[in-house]
């Protein structure tokens, strides 16, 4: 993408390290927590079961738009932009054949509509700088351009913005869905997680007045860390990546020539690495202090890729997933709304092949189910 190239010119990695450094994450966290809490309240108040993958995509899109990019869009504008974004993503991998009604044509049209929507949001943001209490990722991108005497054009800002949403959205939605599915499948894991949160005084009743989470608190909970690590091992959203061979080398007696494209597989690595016992079992304790199965070697565990082009948003992604797990454990009871769990399919990211339908119920501070007003009234009448 053009935006990526120009950002590369102004030290792509440096910009990203500013966007996701500890200080930045600390300012995003209360906002991420609010977006998640709002979403869980919405899910809990729905009379119908929630289609988790679809709603998780909306949640991560909302997080990217509201927190990362700092756009102040109404719910209606946000939903509209989300629908266009989905159309764009659905058609991104279609064959480049430009004929009417083709996926390619739909994808191009969706991209244009999306860029117009982003342009409007960026313009409003540039004009309306008041009442802002933190630097979001887009602010950092704009400032870095200025610092390097290379003010980004609107086109570059739009491309950079789209790249950020694209990288953050599908991967994090995939992992969020897998998290909910695994917590449903393994109630003992959820209970152990609740216990850890309770003993650290973090299990709450979803009230905003409870006080915002801090990065250090979230990142130093050992069992929560094991759960998210294991989730990303067994259900790595991204299956692998491509690299160009810069120097001819030999692997298991085969010569791989310079200039070739090679694919490294994250999923196969996690499935076949000898360091993981019973690799197909969801077992967070494998990363616990007693076992630390990932301690030997650098390349057995790589949900965020490896080498210089590894994921630049990994700290944010982990923080988001940990916050989601904390809020799920604190705020809701949830149960599968179908007889069986859907199968999981790995492309383009890991996700349920059929809908994962789940009912959510709010919990109060004693972990009792919250009865909605309508239900309470009905109960009173009966
Ligand atoms: C659970 C969530 C996520 C997973 C599993 C994930 C995984 C990955 C992987 C495997 C790569 C490397 C692909 C390759 O080898 O070519 C990558 C690249 C990247 N990711 Fe993520 N990612 C996640 C979330 C995010 C988020 C939230 C952001 C930013 C907001 C982000 C930004 C990026 C960027 C910018 C790159 C490209 C890095 C480069 O080319 O130098 N990712 N991600």
TrEMBL record:
Catalyses which reaction(s): all-trans-retinoate + reduced [NADPH--hemoprotein reductase] + O2 = all-trans-4-hydroxyretinoate + oxidized [NADPH--hemoprotein reductase] + H2O + H(+); all-trans-retinoate + reduced [NADPH--hemoprotein reductase] + O2 = all-trans-18-hydroxyretinoate + oxidized [NADPH--hemoprotein reductase] + H2O + H(+)
Keyword DNA-binding: no
Compartments (UniProt record): Endoplasmic reticulum membrane; Microsome membrane
Cofactor names: heme
Organism: Staurois parvus
Keywords: Endoplasmic reticulum, Heme, Iron, Lipid metabolism, Membrane, Metal-binding, Microsome, Monooxygenase, Oxidoreductase
Stored SUPFAM superfamilies: Cytochrome P450 (SSF48264)
Protein name (record): Cytochrome P450 26B1
Record's bilayer topology term: Peripheral membrane protein
Organismal lineage: Eukaryota, Metazoa, Chordata, Craniata, Vertebrata
Signal peptide: none
PANTHER family documented for this protein: CYTOCHROME P450 26 (PTHR24286), CYTOCHROME P450 26B1 (PTHR24286:SF177)
Family: Belongs to the cytochrome P450 family.
